[in-house]
Amino acid sequence: MNESPTGADAAVDPETAAAAQAAALVAARFRELHGADPEGVWSAPGRVNLIGEHTDYNAGLCLPIAIPQRTLVAARRRTDRRLTLASLQEPRGYDLGLDDVAAGAPQGWGAYAAGVPWALARRRHDVGGLDLVVDGRVPLGAGLSSSAALECAVAVACSDLFTLGLVEHDTGRAELASACRDAENVVAQAPTGGMDQSAALRCTPAHALLLDCRDGSTQQVPFDLPAHGLVLLVMDTRARHALVDGQYAARRQSCERAAHDLGVRSLREVPADSLDRALPRLDDDVTRRRARHVVTEIQRVRDTVTALRADDFAAVGVLFDESHASMRDDFEISCAELDLAVETARRHGALGSRMTGGGFGGSAIAVVPADRLAVVTEAVTEAFAHADFRAPQCFPVQAAGPARRDG
Ligand code: GLA
Q: For the chain: N or C, fewer Cβ within 10 A?
């Protein structure tokens, strides 16, 4: 496993070594449970969205990166049409027929895994029974898309094991992402917009993914902060975060109402420079503010890409700050913990900071000069203690690679 071909002392890349170790661990658990080796181990990453929040279900633009934290799945085909699921983290396991998977069934974490073969079969891919053992290493409830990581790890496993041929090219990966989104929307019944699954399947190392949710097209935008003496810091507030509850769906409905009242298919069709003329045509203040967030946020994604391409990180910081203000004041999806993390990071030297993901808890991110990383982390930790909030988890991330086979 990853030894130098000559047996000499050529160093093994630590990331490759860690991935091989993680794969061996979940494979060992599979052997314990099933008395046989898995046919392979696959993994998919969590994501951090740099900017472009709640734009995906408005046919807009967003800009996620894949993060190094991944969910692994050890898998083996079965000869019948049953699906067994076990997890190193969750006590609850599952044993169900593939034909028992449906809208809203099964419930709990198994929906995200079982929904994938169901969604692939609905797209006429020939997928049979499976034994799956999961090691979820993307922090849960942190707004880093642990559920999409699970779906996408199962999806690449299915593609390889049932020779669907969808992993090898971007068109196939886009189809896997759509299937994973169906799994989440229909089986797990979370009305999310598809960004997370595209990130987990289509991001590349050292790049952010500019995703156009109107037509599914993408561009890889160089994103290598360490090369510029900077770090992307994730601050997981550990405040509650649940997408299945009503707030996310309520935001979607407001956006749909705004588009309907403006006579457009989606808020993507409203150019930022026509906003002043469009907003007075909406008849309540809340709908106006929801629409203003989406339209201005889509423009901020374009501006961030321009700034990144010019290595203008000061401008990126300003756009992060404006995005956070828009989510706090217009879209109203921030919370006290997120605001405190963002303000503290800025006060101690971050170039810019914003909440990321669905909101109502979860994580914030900050662009921080490398030599301020310890100071910012300490300041955020202290501010949380002072406010009597749960201790946050702060860690730097780099743009990592997409779902893949690991062993
Ligand atoms: C969650 C959803 C995504 C997206 C973000 C907000 O992560 O899963 O589809 O809507 O919230 O940008």
A: N
